[in-house]
Automatic annotation (TrEMBL):
The gene is ribD. It holds the Pfam family dCMP_cyt_deam_1. PANTHER family: 2,5-DIAMINO-6-RIBOSYLAMINO-4(3H)-PYRIMIDINONE 5'-PHOSPHATE REDUCTASE, DIHYDROFOLATE REDUCTASE FAMILY PROTEIN (AFU_ORTHOLOGUE AFUA_8G06820). Pathway: Cofactor biosynthesis; riboflavin biosynthesis; 5-amino-6-(D-ribitylamino)uracil from GTP: step 3/4; Cofactor biosynthesis; riboflavin biosynthesis; 5-amino-6-(D-ribitylamino)uracil from GTP: step 2/4. This is Riboflavin biosynthesis protein RibD. It catalyses: 2,5-diamino-6-hydroxy-4-(5-phosphoribosylamino)-pyrimidine + H2O + H(+) = 5-amino-6-(5-phospho-D-ribosylamino)uracil + NH4(+); 5-amino-6-(5-phospho-D-ribitylamino)uracil + NADP(+) = 5-amino-6-(5-phospho-D-ribosylamino)uracil + NADPH + H(+). Residues 4-117 form the CMP/dCMP-type deaminase domain. PROSITE patterns: CYT_DCMP_DEAMINASES_1, CYT_DCMP_DEAMINASES_2. It comes from Terrabacter ginsenosidimutans.
């Protein structure tokens, strides 16, 4: 089998994988089953946690034609019984004679499928387009490594670093285009998190509202953390769907509760207290700062005291990109060294 052909089939499997959902507790995986005469007999991709794995979808379509065929899978077929059974056994039982996969499974519970297939007499080749496959599941792999959801902190400030005026009023520091951009980014996450302080002060809805009033494909979970009560009249209850109240002040505990609920990519819009708690605990993975060319001269910063007393202790971040949005600037940065 030529490497070029294997890569071409793997590209098709990667296209299928990309149709899967993110954020999700599971990775995005695609599978193509090809008969010895070069005919595609089955295709599938993983539709998210709790649904059949990509290989199972493709095997169902292939039925008897899987016998003697080659399966191209973007992730090493699993060896474990989780929400679904081991794909390595299903491939071997269906009589697939060769399995080509891209990325080894970084999840230690599921890894080992390659050896299992090999032991069952199936020819196995790994590492074909491994970097491309890893690329589409980069955020997923980081959540597996960290054992917690990723956290993106969003802040809006004036040029002089103020997020609220001296009287506490804080709405509309940035312009409409920047606010629309926030909604687009919120839509790429599976939870929006604020503290009870922000909830009581700003009464946010925490929903995704698309430009022009277009319906959002999916609304992130609305989550509020803190020990104060969430008033039943709060606007966060206006939209359909659940509001999760995380009754803790501990960011790690809040993330554990979200993780158990299947959340993997959190959009943090809390006020200065919550921001300081997450930053202080090293639990911020991405920062989006919207900076308006405006001055307040007094008022609160976006983050409370981080305990830094000297410039030698300054917390540096690596710049990812800077974009002008309407009359404001958006800076994306990540903690140095990530
Ligand atoms: C595969 N094919 O399409 C996917 C795999 O809880 P489960 O049973 O869905 O298992 C989830 C784990 O299986 C997930 O963490 C990852 O290691 C692997 N995902 N494996 O063979 C697939 N989605
Ligand atoms: Zn599987």
């Amino acid at each position: 089998m030529g490497d070029t052909a294997a890569r071409a089939w793997m590209r098709r499997a990667l296209q299928l994988a990309a149709a899967g959902p993110w954020p999700d507790p599971n990775p995005r995986v695609g599978c193509v089953i090809v008969a010895p005469d070069g005919a595609v007999v089955g295709e599938g991709f993983h539709h998210g946690a709790g649904t059949p794995h990509a290989e199972i979808e493709a095997l169902r379509e292939a039925a008897d034609a899987a016998r003697g065929a080659t399966a191209y899978v973007t992730l090493e077929p699993c060896s474990h019984t989780g929400r679904t059974g081991p794909c390595s056994d299903a491939l071997a039982d269906a009589g697939v004679s060769r399995v080509v996969f891209a990325q080894s499974d970084p999840n230690p519970d599921a890894a080992g499928g390659a050896e299992r297939l090999h032991a069952a007499g199936v020819h196995v080749t790994g590492g074909v387009l491994a970097d491309e496959a890893a690329g589409i599941n980069e955020r997923w792999a980081r959540t597996v490594d960290l054992g917690r959801p990723l956290v993106t902190w969003k802040l809006a400030t004036t040029l002089d670093g103020r997020s609220a005026a001296a009287d506490g009023s804080s709405q509309w520091i940035t312009g409409e285009a920047a606010r629309a951009d926030v909604h687009l980014l919120r839509a790429t996450r599976d939870a929006v998190l604020v503290g009870t302080g922000t909830l009581l002060a700003d009464d946010p809805r925490l929903t995704v509202r698309m430009p022009g009033g277009a319906p959002a494909l999916q609304q992130p979970l609305r989550a509020v953390m803190g020990l104060r009560e969430v008033p039943s009249r709060a606007r966060v209850h206006d939209a359909p769907g659940a509001v999760m109240h995380l009754e803790t002040r501990d960011p790690r505990e809040a993330l554990d509760l979200l993780w158990c609920r299947g959340v993997r990519d959190v959009w943090l819009e809390g006020g200065p207290t919550l921001a300081a708690a997450f930053l202080g605990a090293g639990l911020v993975d991405d920062v989006y700062a919207y900076v308006a060319p405006a001055l307040l001269g007094s008022g609160a910063a976006a983050v409370d005291d981080l305990g830094i007393r000297s410039i030698s202790e300054v917390r540096r971040l690596d710049l990812v990109d800077v974009v002008v949005i309407g009359g404001d600037v958006r800076i994306h940065a990540v903690p140095a060294g990530t």
